[in-house]
Amino acid sequence: MSSPNQKADQHIYLNRSELLEIEKKIRIQRHVERYALLRQFAKGVVCDVACGCGYGSYLLSTNPDVSAVIGVDINSDIINFATKEYSSEKVSFYEADISQWQVPEPVDMLISVETIEHISDKYALSKFCDRNSINNVILTYPSKKTTHYNPYHLYDFKLQNILDIFSSFTCYRHFNWEYEFDVVFLIRNH
């Protein structure tokens, strides 16, 4: 990161690869921050859907109110990595498709970070909760339009869309984090 003529000035010179590397680090840091934020609300047995490589499941498990974390993802390679890197007494990982999967033990809470916009069946998470009798849900989703530049995002959601999808739940808390993503807390109606 030096200027072409090597003299100090008020400008920052970044080549393209340096810029892209910084952007990658920011994206990773922001995703870790989401789990660090949600960790304070986690309790009991938590199911982390679309857990990826497992760092979020591990972070959730560091809350003393959490007795176990079940991380689930459909990708076998990423689950193998998660198992090797983050499995512990409190954290276990499963390769599974949530459209059919039954959790191996009762779950107190589902946490899903930036997942719902990736799943073709936008009702898959609510069906998963119904099938597994999960009564508490915390989920996040992008708070702005992303489908036009992120090919992996299939939907752009607003709060009302989430409430319609989780129609057997009541939203008891909702907030936006730094204009980047929304966090929704849901409890099942009885």
Structural account:
This protein has 190 residues and is an alpha/beta fold. The chain has a single domain (42-188), classed as Rossmann fold. It has helices at residues 16-39, 55-61, 76-86, 124-131, 159-165, and strands at residues 44-49, 66-73, 91-95, 109-112, 136-142, 169-177, 181-188. Strand 2 (66-73), helix 3 (76-86) and strand 3 (91-95) form a beta-alpha-beta unit. It starts with 15 loop residues before the first helix and ends with a strand.
List keywords for this structure.
single chain; 190 residues; alpha/beta; Rossmann fold; 5 helices; 7 strands; 30% helix; globular
Sum this structure up briefly.
The protein is α/β, with parallel strands linked by helices and 190 residues long. It is 30% helix and 25% strand.
Q: Could you give the topology of this structure?
A:
Elements: H1 16-39, E1 44-49, H2 55-61, E2 66-73, H3 76-86, E3 91-95, E4 109-112, H4 124-131, E5 136-142, H5 159-165, E6 169-177, E7 181-188
Parallel strand pairs: 1-2, 1-4, 2-3, 4-5
Antiparallel strand pairs: 5-7, 6-7
Helix pairs in contact: 1-2
Mean pLDDT comes to 93
| Global shape | globular
Helix proportion range? 25-40%
Strand runs, count? 7
State the CATH architecture.
Answer: 3-Layer(aba) Sandwich
Q: Look at the structure and name the CATH superfamily.
A: Vaccinia Virus protein VP39
C-alpha end-to-end distance:
59 Å
The CATH class assignment is Alpha Beta
Estimated radius of gyration: 19 Å
Total of helices? 5
Which fold name corresponds to the CATH topology? Rossmann fold
Classify the oligomer: single chain
Largest sheet: 7 strands, mixed
